[in-house]
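lol so apparently i was supposed to do this last week
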Amino acid sequence: MTLIISVSGLRGIVGEGLTPQVACDYGCAFGTYLEGKRVVLARDTRPSGPTVSGAVKAGLAACGCDVLDLGVVSTPGAALMIRRLDANGGVVVTASHNPSEWNGIKLLSGQGWAFPPEIANEIRGIFESKSFRLVGALYMGRASDQGGTHEQHVEAVLSHVDADRMCRSGFKVVLDSINGAGGEGGARLLQALGCELIHVNAEPNGRFAHTPEPTAENLKGLCEIVREHGAQIGFAQDPDADRLAMVDENGVYIGEEYTLALAARQVLASRPGPVAANLSTSRMIDEVARSAGNQTVYRTPVGEAHVARAVLENGCVIGGEGNGGVIDPRVVPVRDSFVAMGLVLDLMAATGKSLSQLVAEIPRFTMIKEKFPCSQEKIAAVLEAVRGELADQRLNESDGIRIDWPEGWVHVRGSNTEPIMRIIGEATDQAEAEELIRRVRGIAERVLGS
Ligand code: MG
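anyway here it is w/ magnesium ion bound
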């Protein structure tokens, strides 16, 4: 029975780990934590969405929360509406890039961002102990439907880009919305930017046309469509539309790491300031920040809440993650594929350059991601050995250990949900990246006796 509980909420296979009872309990737990206030509720397009969402709604109302149901909208759209509707929190029923058999429940704070671990753990404690504060019949929360999210989200993005300039460019764009929650708003945005839109997988029916994670192997079809139509760019959203991957005008998948790098370049061109990114995000962001007048890059532990917090605490002009997640605090404090599309097209219009030219202007790195089995008990021992053997290097220990050498970096950390350690390395070429990873993996292997 698969049910994964993490700081961002829970996920499971519908009908196995994730049942209506579990969803209702989770709604009760969040309603108990909020002590019966206003909550925004949203869902992606999965066929199980109405059932799971309905169960969450019942749990919230049973604990006295009024529920504003946005229906099918993106995660960033939901985050925006929390603030617009003066709600105290939000729930998004989505399993993000997991296949359609899965669903999940993601919680957002009254500020519209993911909860920090201490609060997420408090809510988890209420869920697991079932210590719910149910209210009597007269105090039960009321549920109402709330429209207008897509319009308001698109307006928010438009107010921070030069729409007229993009309209004059008249870009031909392919958007793959994977039949997820980003299709309707995505189309509205690109049309408002004067794009000639070829919209594929635009039906909000939750039948994912390909494996949802926006990686190279899953987007071969998009690459072909971009070539066939002679489009200038191809965009791919994930099912809840917080992440964005891109394909260039030659039909080449350019990788999710470039989404943040290019969006940051556009923001920093007019509003220089600090940037935040997690420890596993490419050095490209450092290069972009350096070219824009040596701006500071704050590195955070992995997890959207950490990046969002760093953005807000340090007054960053932009932040994000290498998985195609761009956070523009002027719009919402979560990853937002709408913001990312607006900023990248704005950059193309401002510079008059093609996507492949813009990509070529950023120094190229090679990133390698590996994982190896490691029990939760052994993680500390591995990290201790890495720390001991590499003590004379530049180390960041805020989440596992990241070691920075002049030629590249390696980040090694234990998973919170599986008995594995992840090891990510990046350098100017493949051989160098492999060599750096080998050095750190060698230390782990000695500790684990493998
Ligand atoms: Mg997502």
